[in-house]
Amino acid sequence: MNRASSPTASAPVGRLTTPRATVPVEESRKPAPDALTIGRRLRHVRQESGQTLGDVAQTVGMSASALSLIENGKREPRLSVLTALAEALGTPLAELLATAPPTRRAALEIRLERAQRADSYHQLGLPAVKIGPRLPMEALEALVGMHEAMASVQAERAATPEHARMANAELRMRMRAVDNYFGEIEGMAAELLTAIKHPGGPISRAAVDRLAGHLGYSLVHTSDMPGSTRTVTDMTHKRVYLPQPEAGQHDSRSLALQAIGHLVLGHRVPADYAEFLSQRVEINYFAAALLMPEQDVVPRLQDAKQAKDIAIEDLRDAFAVSYETAAHRFTNLATRHLDIPVHFMRISREGVIYKAYENDGVSFPRDATGAIEGQRVCRQWTARRVFEQPDLSQAFQAYTDTRSGTYWCTAVVDRTSDGLFSVNVGVPYQSVKWMRGRETTHRSQSRCPDPSCCHQPPAELAERWTGHAWPSARAHSHLLAAMPPGVFPGVDDTEVYTFLERHAPTG
Ligand SMILES: [Zn+2]
Q1: CA nearest to 231, candidates 206, 257, 255
Q2: Which strands, in side-by-side order, build the sheet including 419-428?
Q3: pLDDT-based confidence at 2, cuts 50/70/90?
Q4: Within 10 Å of residue 249's Cβ, how many Cβ atoms?
């Protein structure tokens, strides 16, 4: 089974095997007792009455082994059988059907039974402990405690959307605090470039090979990469496997550099989703710092600033990278080296934020947890207006008055297999004098989060349609779904190990 499937999707639906963490909710919603509780109550009442299994079984006309199965919660008794049993034991039926376990020990036994029946326990391949009178109370307590502690750790690792959003928000604050500039990574990138005697300028594919070689690794392109991965590094044979570059794609420099980034930056196996996420950001930064070396980009940007002619497109063209990489790199370096505060955004055609950073005070829309991913930006913002332009291949520049000031932004539409996105870089009004495209006459007013700005339909339309429309929403599953569990979220380990076996050098 694919480890990437979410815990909710693979969780058993039956109440008996529901993991402990969700039991209270289930119990409050379904007051009917389950087979385990009924069995424990039945045994308790029988033992109190002083009768043996055989005695009671004979009275109600069933075999002792069948009654034992019921007492162990392995068989659900029909109501008629329960009625007969209650009569044989001289107890009201309600006594057997009560939802509370009869004793503390019975309660623990039920919890242990449930824990041992859970899929997550079976996945460990460990034997189930026999639950019976010979199991000491303290062993029972300890086992239940450990099972439940493990379940809560697992629940934490399977980062929920809330976890993911908080991790994203934290990371964004960290980047803001350092003006989106990671000096340590810049330093490592510079050292590596010196080590391979890089002459300066954009790094070539051959230089990436030399860089891997310098670290003792080789880059291997293959057409059968595991579907759940972008790259796989074989740390035994020191190889980085990469996909064959697709038609229309420049090359795989960026992917290779990201894979190398994990090694150079000394990443350990991520302990949680937040660490996974920050590793992602670091390898992206590392790759960009090599594709567009600080010592080459900064003089260019300084010259452009001098000439009041800074343009993201020039960076893109000079270093043969995507517009997004160039925009990202500008965001890294602009404040530190040019004294220009900046914001960066990547949004979908529907206006939904996928990625955004700022240190210029622009107010991104955010939810109650402070997260911005999945939020919709104002219709008046340049990042959205670019989609309305007649020629989507052109960069679009505009001024926007917002509640936190006036910004000038430049946006470009990025066509991907997942649809259209816009990549947007913006600066506050007082910095626009350095930017190419500042003479634009496009200007708009954004009054968001005032709902009358763009979130509320115009009064006339609202009057006509309120109560007469029922749209079905397109879910943004990538943003709302729980993050896949596993050490490397979303990666299918079996697939990866099979792949490595297939490709590993023999002997
Ligand atoms: Zn608005």
Answers
A1: 255
A2: 353-358, 343-348, 419-428, 405-416, 396-402, 443-445
A3: very low
A4: 12
Nearest C-alpha neighbor of 185 from the set 291, 101, 276: 291
Q: How far, in Å, from the CA of 365 to the mean position of ligand 1? A: 10
**Nearest CA-CA partner of 353 in 177, 478, 254:** 478
pLDDT value, residue 274: 82
| Pairing outcome for strands 218-222 and 239-243 | parallel
> What's the 449 CA to ligand 1 centre distance in angstroms?
7
Measured CA distances, 43 to 66, 73, 100 (Å):
13, 10, 14
Res. 16: pLDDT tops 50 = no
| Amino acid making up residue 289 | A
Label residue 197 left, alpha or beta by phi (over 0 means left) and psi (-120 to 50 means alpha): left
Report residue 429 as tokens: 């009004």
Distance 361 CA to ligand 1 centre (A): 17
Give long-range contacts, CB 8 A cutoff, 24+ apart: 376-379: 376/350, 376/351, 376/352, 377/345, 377/347, 377/351, 377/353, 377/448, 378/402, 378/446, 378/448, 378/453, 378/454, 379/351, 379/453, 379/454
CB atoms within 10 A of CB 493: 15
383 C-alpha vs ligand 1 centroid, how far in Å? 12
pTM recorded for the entire structure: 0.69
Ligand 1 centroid–CA 287 distance in Å is 35
Order of strands, edge to edge, in the sheet holding 239-243?
A: 218-222, 239-243, 232-234
- Taking the centre of ligand 1 as the mean of its atom positions, its distance from the CA of residue 420, in whole angstroms, is 21
Question: What tokens were used for 208?
Answer: 């990436």
Cα(455) to centroid(ligand 1), Å: 6
Residue 445 alpha carbon to ligand 1 centre in Å: 8
Distance of CA 396 to the CA centre of its chain: 32
Q: Measure 452 CA to ligand 1 centroid, in angstroms.
A: 8
Q: Which three-class secondary structure state does DSSP give residue 24? A: helix
Three-state DSSP at 178 gives coil
What CA–CA distance (Å, rounded) separates 198 from 331? 24
> 267 alpha carbon to ligand 1 midpoint, in Å?
41
Distance from C-alpha of 164 to C-alpha of 159, rounded to nearest angstrom: 6
pLDDT tens digits, residue range 169-196? 888 888 999 999 999 999 999 999 999 9
Cα 78 to Cα 23: distance, rounded to the nearest angstrom: 24
Angle between helices 183-195 and 205-214 (to 10 degrees): 90
